[in-house]
Amino acid sequence: MSRTVTFEVDRGVAVVTLDRPDVRNAIDLPTARQIAAALDEVDAREDVMAAVFTGAGPVFSAGMDLKAFSATGERPLVEGRGAFGICERATEKPLIAAVEGKALGGGMEIALACDMVVASEASWFGLPEVKRGLVAAAGGVLRLPRRVPRAVALEMVLTGEPVDAARAHALGLVNRVVAPGTARERAVELALSIAGNAPMAVRVAKQLVVSAPDWSEAEMFDRQRADVDRVRSSADAAEGARAFVEKRPPVWTNT
Predict the structure, then answer these.
(1) Element (DSSP H or E) covering residue 118
(2) CA-to-CA distance for 158 and 14, rounded, in angstroms?
(3) Model's pTM, two decimal places?
(4) Catalytic residue (one of 79, 88, 109, 239)
(5) In whole angstroms, what is the distance from residue 77 CA to residue 85 CA?
(6) In the UniProt record, does the keyword Lyase occur (predicted)?
(7) Which of 52, 135, 171, 213 would be 148's cystine partner, CB 3.0–4.6 Å?
(8) Known catalytic residue at 109
(9) Residues 188-202: pLDDT tens digits?
């Protein structure tokens, strides 16, 4: 099987690159399995604190490889991780999408599966499934209303019309808009700023941010208490305080 996904680690940041530019980074089943394996590695490796997901070439991803599907009938689904090996479950560690060019359909759903998005000024985001008699079922109709106002999500989902990077940023869908050709570099910089922090604190903070919207106001402090107390009593919390007093960079042990 040819490698269509590359995996690199540097200074605590993993970069997962979808490498099928000749088909606009469309994803077939073997590629989805490689994406899932790369995300498994992100979660398993102790030297990885954050990750970036990007696509090679001028297009982030065209989503499902329809040519491969028509030839084999196999959909790019991976048990435990869902569509494209990422959409149902991404990573426990912070994951940043670095988007150049178009992120439409499944490509946008991959971006929505990530925690943050760094996008080129020339990028576009959209869910055109209704134009083809389909529904954006790989997370599009589920996650978009959690990232942008409901009325905006409905407009995007029901018209199928895309928005450019500036509009996506104004809506809060995109964290940072950067010069064309620099999305990966800027996403890695953002990931490095995360990777320099205490691993346990980062992991628990992400978990709470993701989980808390489903909690009632009456229960939310009680529900966070055990996780917060575990972080507060950790060796890294003590190290963070010492390093601050001693005016030096902290040395984290993830304990």
Answers:
(1) strand 116-120
(2) 36
(3) 0.95
(4) 109
(5) 6
(6) yes
(7) 171
(8) yes
(9) 999 999 999 999 999
